[in-house]
Amino acid sequence: MSDGAIDLVWGGGLRNFRFAIGEFRALQDAVNRRRIAIGAPIVGPMDLLKSLRANNAWPDDIRDVLRLGLIGGGMKPPEAHGEMVHYFDNSPPLEHMKPAMMVLLAGLAGAPGEDVAKKKGGAETTASAEPVTSTDPSISA
Description:
Helix content is 50%, strand content 9%. By secondary structure, the chain is mainly alpha-helical.
């Protein structure tokens, strides 16, 4: 199982972002509070990911993904806010779309190339997409 962490160059340096259940809950509250206020349909994390992939996410949604990811990665909330003011608020939102997508995707599916078994200190086996078959007649499919 992934811990939802990813390291990305953003905001002038290498930053650790992490999206776990707490960050997902905070994101859900933030993005849907805005939508409810204007009567727009609420969205889940996969809807938001699709918007990020299509370069069609709301600027505050992009900002929230990055801010919450920084906090999840260990940055204190006031420091994360300062980073957003300095690096996000003074630049076009489109340049932050891909990093936000990567952060959200890492939380949903794990970071690209992440070897979860090694990271967690678990067994060195990985799941296979191929079905497991047996020639033992006592085992039914």
